[in-house]
Design a protein that fits this description.
Blueprint lengths: L1 H4 L18 H14 L6 H23 L3 H11 L3
Helix pairs in contact: 2-3, 3-4
């Protein structure tokens, strides 16, 4: 399918070896994909809340891991993580 059309597949596999703190970016991608796939089926406000909750969870986990201030993590993450 390729990186552009992967959401058209009947199954999406998020690569990795189970859950680990190193797979934080994968969780954000899952939330982003979920919101895109259910756009038009679930209220936009609910999807926006889900996206924000996923982002907040990601930032909190990264902050626990690297012990940097959340505003710095948020600024850096917004440049390199898609949600």
């Amino acid at each position: 399918m390729g990186p552009e059309n992967y959401r058209d597949a009947s199954f999406i596999h998020y690569a990795g070896r189970g859950y680990s703190n190193s797979s934080l970016k994968r969780e954000v991608r899952f939330v982003n994909d979920f919101c895109e796939l259910f756009k038009g089926h679930i209220d936009d406000k609910v999807l926006a809340d889900i996206k924000q909750s996923g982002w907040d969870l990601f930032i909190n986990k990264v902050q626990q891991r690297y012990k940097l201030p959340k505003p710095i993590i948020n600024a850096i993450a917004k440049r390199f993580v898609t949600i």
